[in-house]
Amino acid sequence: MKTISLINLKGGVGKTTIATNLAYLLTESWGLRVLLIDNDKQGNASRWLEADDKHGTLANILMDGVDVKEVIQHSRYGGLDFIAADMGLIEANYDVIRKEGIRQDSILREAMAEIQDDYDICVVDNPPDINMSVFNVLALTDDVIIVTVLEADSIDGIRKMVQQVEDVKQFNPRLSIKGVLANQYIAYPDSIAFFEEIKKEGLPVFSSRISYATRPAKRGMVAASKNHQSLFEVCPKCRVSRDIMKFAEELLS
Ligand SMILES: Nc1ncnc2c1ncn2[C@@H]1O[C@H](COP(=O)(O)OP(=O)(O)OP(=O)(O)O)[C@@H](O)[C@H]1O
Ligand SMILES: [Mg+2]
């Protein structure tokens, strides 16, 4: 199982939109066995997948040592399973910090060992934050995708994220930054300058960019979220859907 983490300390850049639609595509278009981990107490990805409250959440794995297999839920898409999150992650993060005599950042990696062969790919939707559950996810991640919007303060956020990844590499040498992915992209001259600056820092950048949604696409996004569907089911021809598809192709190539 390869693990991909979509991440940025900045909120509202599109991590959940891209993680959920990517997970959908990987299973429905590529036929892969996909596990989506919701690592955000906001639980947006979990709500999209209509998580039930019988299975428990990521917090129960981190805090109570509940078996991963008990927590995994099946989605309505045959090849897509998920681990849900909710506000319980706040307590779990405190609890993990207080645990003594164990590697606090390796709880999830150890717990996931038993399901390594059950999935082809694991997609993690991260919070706009760095905390114990994010360190636990980075400890088992292969590829980091930094989702960003092209705003003046975005570069600083990307630098901070890169620093965190570098620190975690000391105990997870498989971890690498696969690329910076621009979302809500509009082709302004400033956008090109932004990319040049990122490249100057030696960071890989995806050539696929996810366009800023036009009004019909935005309506599609709202409908998809409300109806618990992917963008590909609601507006397959929207530019945003086509862009996410191109990004998935680039990621898998
Ligand atoms: N390409 C896009 N064009 C226009 N709107 C977008 C685009 N991508 C995402 N959005 C909208 O931006 C908002 C934030 O998106 P999303 O929840 O995916 O961000 P996030 O990074 O996961 O946020 P958070 O940090 O709070 O978890 C949502 O309303 C979403 O519909
Ligand atoms: Mg989110």
Rg, rounded, reads: 17 Å
Strand content: 15-25%
Query: Span between N and C termini?
Result: 17 Å
How many strands appear in the DSSP assignment?
8
CATH architecture classification: 3-Layer(aba) Sandwich
CATH topology (fold) name: Rossmann fold
The kinds of small molecule bound in this structure are: adenosine-5'-triphosphate, magnesium ion
Q: What is the number of independent domains?
A: 1
What would the principal axes of the Cα set say about the shape? globular
**Which residue ranges are poorly predicted, with pLDDT under 50 across at least 5 consecutive positions?**
none
- CATH evolutionary superfamily: P-loop containing nucleotide triphosphate hydrolases
What can you see in these coordinates?
- Helix content is 44%, strand content 18%.
- With 253 residues, the chain is an alpha/beta fold.
- It has one domain: P-loop containing nucleotide triphosphate hydrolases (Rossmann fold).
- Helix 3 (58-64) runs parallel beside helix 5 (88-98).
- The longest helix has 16 residues, at 154-169.
- It is globular.
- The mean pLDDT is 94.
- Residues 15-16, 40, 44, 125 line the site of magnesium ion.
